[in-house]
């Protein structure tokens, strides 16, 4: 059950974003916006990732990882509903909420996998990463056909089904793992005092620079 829950959570972390591009012309017409403003719609989530991600670990340490994943999925559900519920300001609000929700999932899910499957980290990481990549392609591929069957609201709202299934599957995992996670967090807090701050790590800065440079190339 936990693997299935993880797969459905992962399916909500990319597809709601890739579904926008193929129907951007319909969105522009429906919201009466120009190309420049439409470009902002696809940029907002990336900016939100950068702003929110550094704070996710603090939230996770207070809530536990499973509760943070739950919060992430709830935010995605709310965002998907809001994004197709009104005009341009509402669409922007939904996009911001979506970026926040996905940012939480992006940061916490890999750590959760490492904790939950210590002997199968490679396999499970590959599974959720593969799910994200597959559904990202699926989001782009299904978006236009779904909009032809209805409107852009149908193609963007379609992923609400996956998010709802994810939350239903995740609740039992969250409830069953809370005590174990709290114990783990307490132990981690004790060990953290013995470790140097990551901001002083040359390796951390090197990895951050490499990943940032890679993202810059990809998005420019």
Automatic annotation (TrEMBL):
An annotated Gene Ontology molecular function: transmembrane transporter activity
Keyword set, alphabetical order: Membrane, Transmembrane, Transmembrane helix
Topology of the protein relative to the lipid bilayer: Multi-pass membrane protein
Subcellular compartments: Cell membrane
SUPFAM superfamilies xref list: MFS general substrate transporter (SSF103473)
Segments crossing the lipid bilayer: 38-56, 68-84, 90-109, 121-144, 156-175
Gene Ontology cellular-component annotations: plasma membrane
Protein name as annotated: MFS transporter
């Amino acid at each position: 059950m936990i693997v299935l829950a993880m797969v459905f959570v992962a399916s909500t972390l990319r597809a709601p974003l890739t579904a926008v591009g193929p129907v951007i012309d319909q969105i522009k017409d429906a919201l009466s916006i120009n190309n420049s403003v439409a470009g902002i719609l696809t940029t907002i989530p990336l900016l939100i990732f950068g702003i929110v991600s550094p704070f996710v670990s603090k939230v996770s340490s207070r809530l536990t990882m499973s509760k943070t994943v739950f919060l992430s999925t709830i935010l995605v559900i709310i965002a998907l509903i809001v994004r197709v519920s009104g005009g341009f300001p509402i669409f922007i609000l939904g996009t911001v909420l979506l970026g926040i929700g996905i940012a939480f999932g992006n940061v916490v899910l890999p750590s959760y996998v490492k904790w939950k499957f210590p002997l199968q980290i490679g396999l499970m990481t590959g599974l959720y990463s593969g799910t994200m990549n597959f559904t990202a392609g699926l989001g782009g591929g299904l978006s236009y056909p779904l909009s032809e069957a209805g409107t852009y609201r149908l193609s963007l709202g379609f992923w609400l089904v996956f998010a709802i299934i994810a939350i239903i599957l995740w609740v039992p995992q969250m409830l069953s793992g809370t005590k174990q996670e709290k114990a783990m967090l307490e132990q981690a807090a004790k060990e953290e005092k013995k470790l140097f701050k990551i901001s002083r790590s040359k390796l951390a800065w090197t990895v951050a620079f490499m990943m940032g440079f890679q993202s810059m190339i990809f998005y420019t």
